[in-house]
Amino acid sequence: MLVLLAGIFVVHIATVIMLFVSTIANVWMVGTSSYATISTGLWLLCNRTCTQLPVSSQDEASLKAVQAFMILSIIFSVVALVLFIIQLFTLEKGKRFYMTGAVMLVCWMCILIAVSIYTARFTHTVVFATNPHHGYCFILAWICFCFSFIIGILYLVLRKK
Predict the structure, then answer these.
(1) Fewer CB near the last or first residue (10 Å), C or N of the chain?
(2) Structural domain total, the chain
(3) Which of 47, 26, 29 has its CA nearest to residue 125?
(4) Strands of 44-46's sheet in order across
(5) In whole angstroms, what is the distance from residue 96 CA to residue 46 CA?
(6) Where are the membrane-spanning stretches (predicted)?
(7) Which residue range forms the structural domain that includes residue 69?
(8) Across the chain, which distance is largest between two alpha carbons, in Å?
(9) How many CB atoms neighbour CB 81 within 10 A?
(10) CA-to-CA dists, residue 103 to 12, 110, 143, 159, angstroms
(11) pTM for the whole structure
(12) Confidence class of residue 160 from pLDDT cuts 50, 70 and 90?
């Protein structure tokens, strides 16, 4: 049981780190131009230097929603990690990890909403670029989506042990 809890803890920390990286780095979409590689993220457009991400007025609300839900997912993931540590040492068996699992599933839902909006609105929209494709931050966000769901379900299953 202790090895399982340690494994879940390590995966949870890895998920928090990957969420930070995917939210902060500007490599959600990547494309090539005649002189450089262009990448866009949630915040900036980068080729040789980074500038403010140009967004049309109709897509601005969608981008703000993606930014907000990614930040919320980081907050909920960190809160779930703190709750896990607190509940591990303070609650008795059978009552542990209800809140941790619930908060992690809220984190999962925030990631789902953010990445789904980004996929629907901003896929293949690298400005002045040919051959656009998804960058590593987009892929990390989907990996965090999977990990947070698995961790949330495991916390709810482990409450009985």
Answers:
(1) N
(2) 1
(3) 29
(4) 50-52, 44-46, 37-40, 29-32, 130-134
(5) 45
(6) 7-29, 65-85, 97-118, 138-158
(7) 1-29+57-124+136-160
(8) 62
(9) 20
(10) 12, 11, 18, 14
(11) 0.88
(12) low
